[in-house]
User: Fold this.
Amino acid sequence: MISSIFEKTKPINYIAVILLLLVMVVLAISFSSLEVLKSITYLDITINFVILLISVLLLAFLFYKNKLTNHTTYAVAIYVLLIGCFPEVMVNREILIANLLFILGARRLLSLHSLKSVKAKIFDSFLLIGIGAFVYHWGVLLLLMCYITIVLYDAKDIRNWLIPLVVFGLLYLGYVLYQFYIIKDCVIVFTLPEDLKVVTFGFPKYNRVINYISIGYILPVGVFGMLSYLASFQSKSISFQKPYWFLTFLFVLSIFLQIVDATNKSVVIFTFFPLVVFIALLIEKQEKKHFKELLLWPLLLLAVLSLVL
Assistant:
């Protein structure tokens, strides 16, 4: 039974997650009808696989370290299945790199709960997410998570609010130097990137019915898991609640990111981080095995169908 494979956090469980990711990638390049997957080279898919693998392992560490789930590997396994449901993300390296950098930044942000080295963590997180925004320009919206985290953990210290501005200045200085000395273009320094000039309000339009079926299952289950978990907060301490408010705000922001960049179908990957936590928590609280199976098997079937159709 699939729920038994991912109910622990032992090395064998993580090996199973890695093998699942490998299977998803092999299915994508072997059977998918998507033109972008047919045209990608083996070198490119290998590089993208490594980026995805690092992202998954970082998320596994982040979930375990911050106790976001109850010491199972459901969350990272679901993350891999969601990648299978939307195989377009496997070929968009800019999005994959920006997502990896955001995960690194989120790791620093969530570690603010200890209130140790707060300013260094804010600096690091803004720097990492900011670098990601240079790779994927609409990723600049994700910088708002730094300020949201400051509000959640340490809003009283005015210096915490100024640190992101300092980092932004350093990033912009680096961008200017890069344009002047590497690109040899001093005009582009003072203009917005072309993709930020065009806001395509709406939702991504997929070419395959299976994508809409996946959304029709994943989104309601994820939102239900989120709302049911937030509803139980009355019995939880404020410090316990904060990481989950972080994930809730991240989910809302990632949905808005899809709305403003509707032409880019790979942006959906930014919703995976918060969604998988709430879906995993929903699965973990099920006492009967068949309910866990009932939640997991549709995800597996949707992932496989998305990859082979």
